[in-house]
Amino acid sequence: MKVLKYGFIFIGTLFMVLVAIGIFKRDFDSKASVTIEAPVEQTFAVYNNPLLLNHWLAEFHSIENVSGSLNEVGSSWKMNYQSTEGNLITMQHTLTSYIANQQVGYDYSNEWLTGKTVVTFEANNDGTTSVTMVQQYSGKGIVQNAILFLIQGSIEEVNQSNLEQLKKLIESTHPDKLEDEDEIEL
Asked: What phi and psi, each to the nearest 5 degrees, are found at residue 41?
């Protein structure tokens, strides 16, 4: 009986801690960066190409235009992701900043969370490009904030992994080194 009593006290205490976290911890930050051995123009073009998102963005499923046009500040897009369980997760993205070869910023939200992301591209003197992604996000309720607190490390790992996949995609192709007489096998 004592074990059951202490078990309930432990679970109750854990629940209260999670509720307190959900109430007081509302804002989360994530930062990821990578240096890519390619010019900034090539790096930016690959990052910004919707047809290539499925090659480097984890769980990406599809993108749908809601309003505006590509690269137009204020345009809205539905980004659809497919979870490992097969569920479709939709995020509404609104482009907030766009400077070719330098920066892309967007706000995003769904029924669960809201946030903003700014991705910067910096040309280095050695011909490489530094890409940095900074995110700020928060849940839309106490439960969501508590869950975000518990998984924030995983979110940072996914963001870093996405940039590593982008690096791999870009560095495995070198269109600037092709000659007119080179054959391309598809």
From this structure: -65, -45
Span 88-101, mean pLDDT?
A: 95
Residue 97's beta-bridge partner residues?
Answer: 105
Residue range(s) defining the domain that contains residue 39: 2-174
CA 74 from chain centre, in angstroms, equals 19
Q: How many domains does the chain have?
A: 1
More confident of the two residues 30 and 177: 30
**3 state SS of 146:** helix
CB contact set of 21 (below 8 Å; sequence gap of 6+): 145, 146, 149
| 75 contacts 68 by C-beta, under 8 angstroms | yes
- Which residue carries 């006290």 as its tokens? 9
In a domain, 150, yes or no: yes
Q: In terms of Cα–Cα distance, which of 108, 101, 113, 107 is closest to 151?
A: 113
Q: What is the CATH number of the domain that holds 15?
A: 3.30.530.20
pTM beyond 0.90, yes or no: no
Q: Residue 181: inside a domain, yes or no?
A: no
